[in-house]
Amino acid sequence: MMVMGPQNDAVKIAVVGAGIAGLHCAKILKERGFNVTVFDKELEVGGRMKTSEIDGFLIDHGFHVLQTAYPETSKIINYKSLECKPFKSGARVVDTRNGKIRMKLMADPWRNPIRGLLSSLNGFLSFKDLLRIALLRRSIMKGKLEQCFDGNDETTLEFLQKRKLSEDSINRFFLPLFGGIFLESELNTSERLFRFIFRMMAKGKMVLPKNGIGSIPLSIANQIGDDNIRLGVEINRIEDKALRFRGEAHRFDLVIKAFSEPTDGEGKHVWTIHFDAPKSPLRSKHILLNGNLVDSRSIVSHLAVPSDIQPSYAPSGRSLVTATVVGDRAVEMGYLDEEAIEQAVRNDLGDWFGDGTISTWNTLAIQHITHALPITNSNERLTNLPRNGEDAIECGDHMLHGSVEGAILSGRNSALIAINRFENNSEPIQGPKKKV
Predict the structure, then answer these.
(1) Complete domains list, the chain, with CATH
(2) Most buried among 159, 271, 372, 430, using CB within 10 Å?
(3) What is the pLDDT of residues 329-359, one digit of tens each?
(4) What is the pTM of this model?
């Protein structure tokens, strides 16, 4: 419970952007007693974390999961009240070697020793690779969480190669899994972010809320209150202490920017294709990884059936199947529009499950999400300490790293800066404005 500062209710603060970072920032400031208003040009809160309903299906804006091990996120999200349910640990992997399609289980031996032992005998990875993955896990789990952001800052690919993992294990397991998480197909993302995400996955669970990923920002917005949130407002100009919209200037004691400016090009982008299927194509509650991405025309990084985890995602007797295609892979393969993407995805899934099965699936939505994640390549000296804007206070995952945890930490950091500015006439010591 935060204690209200003196006369905070007289201080007017605008937060521009109703994504999860801006909402968390506004929530903290409101709890502190400030007069806060959140603005967003969209008609609903959430930013990239949104859920729509189509023909009785819950369609998230892109494929999303929550990581229960995120420390700051776990303080503000009540997984129980959102009725979250987990995917099975580990993954199934499409293995197309020797001209045959096989779905092999890569179980987590720490959580399911028996299945882990059996999966080590299915020939998908060598015993040497399994041992090296075990050593990798042990080293990343050691020490404090912040240590994940210390040391070398090479690419994820270079990090895995230096751990002497085979090319086969990298291409068939790490590439489809982490390429899908980082939304890039070369594993150029900083090894620091890889170490952090790997640790979170090893420690926690991947879960889905009952009412879709959009229920998370909605739960925060409910704590702020409708009277403090203005949607459908296109801001024409942002100043340090004013916003201009609808032809007028509106004065505030402080304006906090909670969104990233669009950049040239698409940046990290992703295609997500959602299907209505008569039944689930998977036999277990795992994510299915494409172990055939390298040196092939295959395009799908991974596939999930959210309704296997949360039946609320689909009407009774139907299944929601979601396929993810990383943007740079689509460009490399020359698939640049919805029609081409859908056909390429159906070709992949037809190989895996049979053309007869796939022909019964109806396409619910084809989403092309641009600027889906900030770019966090190697040699950027990525830390776990959010940056602040060069001039104004600014928050969002682009100020740290592309994850719910990054957005939450950044929102909290911006709120603390504002609190110190008005209550103590000073600002807390921040990380470097540029990654050094």
Answers:
(1) 8-50+214-260+385-423 (3.50.50.60), 51-211+265-373 (3.90.660.50)
(2) 271
(3) 999 999 999 999 999 999 999 999 999 999 9
(4) 0.91
